[in-house]
Amino acid sequence: MLYLCNLTLHDNVFFASREMGTLYETEKYLHNWALSFALFEGAYIPKPYCLHDRIAERPGYLEADHDRNLLGLNRAGIYVFPALPVHLSYQISTFKSSTTAYHNRPRKLGAKGSDRNYPSYGQVKELAVGSQYRTYIIAPETVQIPRWIRLGKWASKIRVDSKPISEKNIKSRTGEFVCEHPLNPIDLPGSTRLLLYNRIVMTPVSLLSQAQLLGNYWEISQPDVVGSTERSTLKNLPDRVCLPRGVAYGASSNVPAP
Fold this sequence. Notes:
A hairpin with a 6-residue loop joins strand 12 and strand 13 (207-221). The chain has helices at 32-40, 71-76, 229-233; strands at 2-9, 18-20, 23-25, 79-80, 84-87, 90-97, 120-127, 132-138, 148-151, 156-164, 170-179, 193-200, 207-221, 240-244. By secondary structure, the chain is mainly beta. The longest helix is centred in the N-terminal third of the chain and has 9 residues, at 32-40. Helices cover 8% and strands 36% of the residues. The chain has one domain.
């Protein structure tokens, strides 16, 4: 099943996507790997009580021997696309930070200027409450998509409204297409060719937007009957959406089959 998911922020969401001096900025897109952990950690992604040794020091999103990896979602037939902002606003907050050597001020007030006790401040640019996102989830009918999730460094609260898209509104096609929804290039199948794209610099993997691709894809359209129950249920679905087929976590990398 392919689900249309609308996400509504009930708290400010913060990721340190970019650090520019004392400003910490959150990218406007939501990474699909972060969403995958938020949606399915504990149910399909192991959530150990604690991590030890080297495993605790680095992430292992696509490593089979790592306790917290995404490969279990491949076995369950689940995939979460990155989230596209539909209605977005930011909030900038100021906080007091600890004094560090690389934030020290230069000597502007004489020989002893840098020895004075200057307060250190930082700013965070967060996704504000009320911002709305849209994404798609591939999952079997038996999978329960949670109604509420926690996301970001503040474990912010987000409401999830998911609706299945009927098969009659999904057509399988092959050829050249444009995907206006953001994509993770690591998760694209090897048979899909990237022709043109805009790069979204994010960690741990940069995303793509406005990508032109060649390969197998789904063409999703709105229900035809105006005023029907299905059309009112999927009112936030764009008139036409193209999504690549065969996506999976680490599909284009050298990840061993689970």
